[in-house]
Amino acid sequence: MILVNTDYISGKEFEMLGLVKGSTIQSKNLGRDISQGLKTLIGGELKAYNEMMNEARAIATKRMVDEATALEADAVVNIRYASSAIMQGAAEVIVYGTAVKFK
């Protein structure tokens, strides 16, 4: 499966199959949440939250690819990611794009 954030793939002609998306809501445990809260007092990277968001993006991407595979797509073009805070220590990540089939 080819995944790109452009609306084309060089050298390929394709037909659009439709919108595909994946999403997840992730949170860290209370212990990590407290330690990351203390980290904001002194500054620096919040590594536990960074890991959480990377994991969330990977899960959401896999779910989008699963939808595209069900449509027998060869690729997903024009991929976009969005995230939002659901509550303190929890975030939603959504990824979406257009599933396409090569001609």
Automatic annotation (TrEMBL):
It comes from the Bacteria. SUPFAM superfamilies: YbjQ-like. Pfam families: YbjQ_1. This is UPF0145 protein C8U37_11163. Belongs to the UPF0145 family. InterPro entries: UPF0145_dom_sf, UPF0145_YbjQ-like.
